[in-house]
Amino acid sequence: MAFLIRPTTLADEAQLIEFLTRMFPGKAGLVNPSMLRWKYWDPREDWPEPRSFVGERDGRFVGHVALWPVTVRTGTKSERGVHAMDWAADPRALGAGWSLIKDLTNNYDFVYGIGGEEITRSILPKLGFRAIAEALTWARPIRPWRQMLRHQSKDWQLAPRFVRNSWWSRIPLRLVPRRWTFEPGAASAGVLADLAVEREESFFQYLQRCPAATCLTFHIVNDGRIVGLFALLIVGEQARVAGTWLKTPSPETWRIAFHLAQDAARQHSNASEIIARCTTEAGMIGAERAGMRLRTRTPVVLFRKDGSELLPSLPFQLCDSDALFIKGQPATFLT
């Protein structure tokens, strides 16, 4: 029986939902039709190519992989990379999942993975992926009372957790200098040109169309000059720092940026908790000094088509994988 890998289209929606429902039982958010259309087929100016592929045998879906793409620019050189998501294979179709990932490694400059299912983490090293970093996720409660009422765990720990989070959310910290502020503003091409080498204005426009979340972007301003940008994705009760880009990414500017992100989440959303992900030492120091605590460590693995050990200029923040939106609504609190 011939094995065919091809891009999916909207005409495949019903069959793809049926396949993914079988492969991911109990994960209704993953197969929500509006999310599938957004992830796989909503047009993206920064990536006009297909973002969902199936493996077929005799017209039957036996495997699937979707892409969360990125183009990294260094000087005049650009590299196209993808994070694989919604990767699944029918266990009766030997080699289907392997073939899909192999196809990705042949067609893109680099393929990376951040976390994923246990079986995925065990398979990727066998396909030539190597661990290159740890993505650290930080969190802080910002509305403890509201969080208590909506927390996913309503057990004997609920009251002690509320007391802890009430204290935690009010820990006195070093103030943000008065000359530093944030203001709602678009992630325009002019702002991004000085800050980010891996994201375009159209990427943030795409995030704003996410059916399960609200995307908000803010400029970081110092003495009247824009010196940074951060984006929040509000998913249910959780404000997720999709990404932070700074002209001077020192521990102190990271601290200020995370402080401002917390203030923005309080002022512009009803979120009860804020989370962020970073891999740099300066970002980690800044997150801790801004009152956030480390909640999870997630391995980052990489495969380069050219076989080199060169790392892409990618910060591996929440917006660099489907962790940005994968939990859907309601969010699962980390605090």
Could you give a quick summary of the protein structure above?
With 335 residues, this protein is α+β, with helices and mostly antiparallel strands. Helices cover 28% and strands 32% of the residues.
Fraction of residues in helix:
25-40%
CATH-scheme architecture of the largest domain: 3-Layer(aba) Sandwich
Q: How many domains make up the coordinates?
A: 2
SS-based class: alpha+beta
CATH class of the largest domain: Alpha Beta
Unreliable runs, pLDDT <50, ≥5 residues?
none
Kindly report the spatial arrangement of strands forming the biggest sheet. 1-2-3-4-5-12-6-11-10-9-8-7
The profile of the biggest β sheet is:
12 strands, mixed
Count helical runs.
10
How far the N terminus sits from the C terminus, by CA atoms, comes to 50 Å
Q: Give me the count of strands.
A: 12
Radius of gyration: 20 Å
Give helix and strand order, one letter per element, not per position. EHHEEEHEHEHHEHHEEEHEHE
Estimate the mean pLDDT confidence: 90
Q: Indicate the overall shape.
A: globular
Indicate the proportion of strand residues.
25-35%
CATH topology of the largest domain: Aminopeptidase
Key traits:
12-stranded mixed sheet, 12 strands, Aminopeptidase, 335 residues
Write the layout of secondary structure elements.
Blueprint: E1 3-7, H1 13-23, H2 33-41, E2 52-57, E3 60-74, E4 77-89, H3 96-107, E5 110-114, H4 118-123, E6 130-141, H5 144-150, H6 158-168, E7 180-184, H7 189-193, H8 201-207, E8 214-222, E9 225-235, E10 238-246, H9 251-268, E11 273-278, H10 281-289, E12 293-304
Parallel strand pairs: 4-5, 10-11
Antiparallel strand pairs: 1-2, 2-3, 3-4, 5-12, 6-11, 6-12, 7-8, 8-9, 9-10
Helix pairs in contact: 5-6, 9-10
